[in-house]
Design goal:
The structure holds 2 protein chains of 2 kinds. By secondary structure, chain A is α+β, with helices and mostly antiparallel strands. Chain A is built from 2 helices and 7 strands. Chain A has a single domain, classed as Phenol Hydroxylase P2 Protein (Alpha-Beta Complex), CATH 3.90.56. Chain A has a 4-stranded antiparallel beta sheet with strand order 2-3-1-5, covered by helices on one side. A 3-stranded antiparallel beta sheet of chain A has the order 4-7-6. The radius of gyration of chain A is 12 Å and the shape is globular. The chains are: A alpha+beta, B mainly alpha.
Chain lengths: 89, 329
Amino acid sequence: MSKVLIAFQENDESRYIVQAIEQDNPDATVHFEPAMIRIENEGALTINKATVEEMMGCDWEVQSIHVNLLTLTGHIDEDDDYFTIHWNN
Amino acid sequence: MTIEIKTAKMDTVRNTFGHIARRFGDKPATRYQEATYDIAAQTNFHYKPLWDQDHELNDPTRTAIVMEDWYALKDPRQFYYGPYVQSRARMQENAESNFNFFDKRNLAAKLPDGIKENLIKFLIPLRHAEHTANLNNMYCTAYANYCTAVAQATLFEAMDRFGNAQYYSRIGLSLDGNTGDSLVEAKAEWMNNPIWQGLRAYCERTLTIDDWFETFIAQNIVLDTLLDNLYFEQYDVWLSEHGAGDILMLTEFMRERSKESHRWSDSLIKTVVNESDQNADQIKSWISTWRIRAQQALEPLATGLLSEDALAEAYAALAGRLKKIGLAD
């Protein structure tokens, strides 16, 4: 199985997103690189709107992930409530 | 010649402050955590305050509520100074543009007959009640000072309520063409009209409560839930039905703010109630005391404002909220 990857700029806002990812994807590995947070997981990785909102304490649009997104690998499945990357193989 | 670019990775020496790391583990902390947790001094006070020699300067025993860890009462909005000010600035921008719109189109002059008098009699005097809400939350801030998570949130609430009072005044000024006459009339209503005296007495009474958590309950839970329902649910409908829906534009700030603040006070009470039966019983007894006082206080107002059934509907809303936070009888 291949790994999916997503990376964010390291700042206050994306740290909440990373916390949400850690909670929803317990198997994901998080690497704090210089100025970047890289997250890898086997097969798939999901970011849930509800979890991020709970972490941030305010409303959050899934679309605004792009403000801090650096790169990702995997097929994207995006909706109002979640953002998932996965490999079909 | 080939140039090989290498990156050297340097780890930060510390991820966060020692006291934050002891609480949450040694990893990058959020701004809210760093600005909130374990900020207030809890030990090693040199002198007892002259005005209260039974307690330390920052002393959790100033309330009957007991918490193992007061910092469990975190703010789900995660407000510290920065995000609080940003969020209110955004809301204020909206409110300002609503007021500008209202004034520019001269909507005050287009209100149906009698609405202006109704607003001066029933809506503008609320600025005095909001001022009490400011003082009460300031009181909570002053005596919950041993726990920054609570004290900063009650301080924000206090400033919000001050803002509300100013917006009620602005509505008055929009109605009377900036002469201030409506504020004088509204003050006279608040001071002399029998329908307001119950609420005025309730307000003054809350100012004399000793236990800051009881103040919190009497103000932010009991009174606010009832007034919010009366004004922002029922009176809203009444205004729309009487062709004065434009006014809702001017009270939108209060409505939005109160919804947001309920998220915080709900979560705070829920945590306290879940901590122990003793806390739950204490809060229930405060609520039953103050809901009876509020009933007497608001009856003439609710009847004058809407109808005889209005207060019962507001009490149903209060019961709903209490049930939601685990305080159903």
